[in-house]
Write a structure and sequence with these properties.
Layout (H helix, E strand, L loop, with lengths): L2 H24 L7 H18 L8 H19 L4 H29 L1 H6 L3 H30 L6 H24 L6 H63 L1 H13 L3 H14 L10 H16 L3 E5 L10 H19 L6 E9 L2 E9 L6 E2 L2 E2 L7 H11 L6 E5 L2 E9 L8
Parallel strand pairs: 1-2
Antiparallel strand pairs: 2-3, 3-7, 4-5, 6-7
Helix pairs in contact: 1-2, 1-6, 2-3, 3-4, 4-6, 4-7, 4-8, 6-8, 7-8, 8-12, 9-10, 11-12, 12-13
Length: 430
């Protein structure tokens, strides 16, 4: 068999494996299991290999469109949910798969094409294709990584997916029209202009996604500002309340003297009345966590959970000289406990466990609650039943200040949410 034929056959498979690798890397935010991504990538390769050997004639555009559709169906089957995000990712993958190889092919024509035509060695052909495919895979993965950086910052609804998909659809249609209307072989100059056009389409795609994400983040910021402002007021109220309690405790000695004198004078009724007034004036809460603000947050959530028939167990403490801003800790506690209570009230098992761990400079908050259905992640966060997910976005944004990110672990019908804080140089909570 001709060595060129062998190289061509081998590298057609290598090319598919490169695309499968990109698909595996690109779809990482959509799945909790890496094996789900392996299955999606494998389905793409198998589909394309089958289409290469069908008896009826298919254009490359149609074949790769079918391959992308099959991958999308497999995405929806291996892990249910996130349909809008998966459709968007499949659209981006299909569009970039056409634009990027066309650009690389044009660069090849401007550089080594004439030399490849004249060479008599299949080895040099394999060498050039190896370099090209390596560059293609690296650039494709870089574009995918850039898109992921933008897309993981927002919650992708069908509305968002449709809007974000516009540049991908326009790019695919443009490429299709160029190929359909092409009646003869294009000159090198025209191919160069088309390559620049494809580069522009890729840039437009990235810029469009970035601008849309920034717009959505601005909306989130307004919602966060309102939420965080309310929480800040709540924290200030708690600190004032504990300051008043501290003042009251300082005056306890005087109050005890008054009661003692009333009893010595046998004014028992007056002493009892005075004690009742003291009890009504202030009720000292039970200290649970070692810090006033987190105590009040926990007591408030316990009271709310009790009203819903939920048992909230807490093994939580605030270490001394903790390198965390108190406000940031309150944001994480408030949102994680609110989410846990909201989820647990619909479950048969009505228990929530709050705990924490500390190892060297890392302090981690853990909240464990039952699930009514398997956990479905969208861009690294569970899909919100309210559709906005502002609470978890607040938690994520807060943890990013400390170099951490929210983590989810599902086991035996329960999910444990972990929020790690990595220490700073100066302590905040003392």
């Amino acid at each position: 068999m001709n060595s060129y034929v062998i190289v061509d056959a081998v590298y057609s498979v290598v090319y598919l494996l490169c695309l499968a690798t990109v698909l595996y890397v690109f779809t990482r935010p959509l799945f909790t299991s890496k094996w789900a991504r392996v299955f999606v990538a494998a389905s793409y390769v198998v589909t394309m290999l089958i289409l290469q050997h069908v008896t009826w004639e298919l254009s490359n555009f149609t074949a790769y469109f079918i391959g992308s559709c099959v991958s999308l169906v497999v995405m929806l089957i291996v892990e249910r949910g996130n349909a809008a995000a998966k459709w968007l990712y499949a659209s981006f993958f299909f569009a970039i798969r056409w634009l990027l190889p066309s650009i690389v092919s044009t660069v090849e024509r401007y550089t080594v094409y004439d030399w490849l035509v004249q060479t008599t060695s299949a080895f040099y052909l394999a060498l050039v294709w190896t370099i090209e495919y390596a560059i293609l895979t690296a650039v494709f993965c870089t574009i995918g990584y850039t898109l992921n950086r933008f897309l993981t910052r927002i919650s992708i609804s069908w509305r968002s997916a449709v809007i974000l998909c516009i540049p991908a659809v326009v790019s695919s249609i443009s490429f299709f029209l160029v190929k359909v209307l092409q009646q003869q072989e294009l000159s090198l100059t025209v191919e160069g202009m088309l390559a620049l056009y494809y580069v522009a389409l890729l840039c437009i795609m990235l810029v469009f996604v970035r601008l849309y994400v920034q717009q959505e983040q601005a909306k989130y910021a307004l919602a966060q500002q309102a939420t965080l402002h309310a929480q800040m007021q709540h924290v200030e109220q708690m600190e004032r309340a504990y300051a008043e309690m501290a003042t009251f405790k300082h005056d306890l000695h005087n109050h005890f003297n008054v009661i003692e004198q009333l009893i010595e004078k046998q004014h028992v009724a007056d002493a009892r009345s005075y004690m009742n007034e003291l009890q009504q004036a202030v009720q000292l809460p039970e200290l649970l966590t070692g810090h006033a603000v987190t105590d009040v947050i926990l007591q408030e959530k316990m009271q709310r959970a009790k009203q819903l028939g939920i048992e909230l167990y807490a093994d939580f403490y605030v270490p001394k000289r903790l390198h965390i801003e108190l406000f940031d800790l309150s944001v994480v506690l408030n949102n994680l406990l609110d989410n846990a209570i909201e989820a647990t009230q619909h479950c048969e098992e009505k228990t929530i466990a709050l705990s924490c761990t500390r190892q060297h400079d890392v302090f981690v908050v853990h909240v464990k609650n039952p699930l009514t259905a398997p956990l479905l992640l969208q861009n690294g966060l569970p899909r919100s039943t309210k559709g906005s997910g502002i609470g978890l976005l607040n938690v994520q944004a807060t943890l990013e200040k400390y170099g951490g990110h929210v983590q989810f672990h599902e086991e035996d019908g329960f999910v444990t949410v972990s929020a790690p804080f990595i220490a700073r140089n100066e302590p905040f909570v003392t």
